[in-house]
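Please check this one:

***
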Amino acid sequence: MASNLMHLVFGGRVKDPRGLEFEDLNNLEVVGFFPDYASAEKAWRSAAQRTVDDAQMKFVVVHMHKLLEPGLHDDHQH
C-alpha cells in the first residue's frame, strides 16, 4: 500500500445543491491537502459546518492518490 494517500478538500458555490457543478471555478476554496482520509474528513466537516446555512456551498474530499496512481487503490479503502 502506498505511504502517501494524499487527499484534497475544496469547495465552492454549486448551481444545484444536489450536484457537483460549481458555479465559478475561479472562486473555489481550497481547504488543503491532507496525508490521510481521517484528517481530510475532519477538514471537510469543519468547512461544511462553517457554511451549513448556505445550501449552495458544497465541500468535497478528493482521493488524490487514486488519481495519481489509478488501479493501485481498488480495494475501496480510504
User: Anything to note?
Assistant: The chain has one domain: 7-68. The mean pLDDT is 88. The beta strands are 7-13, 29-34, 57-63. The radius of gyration is 13 Å.
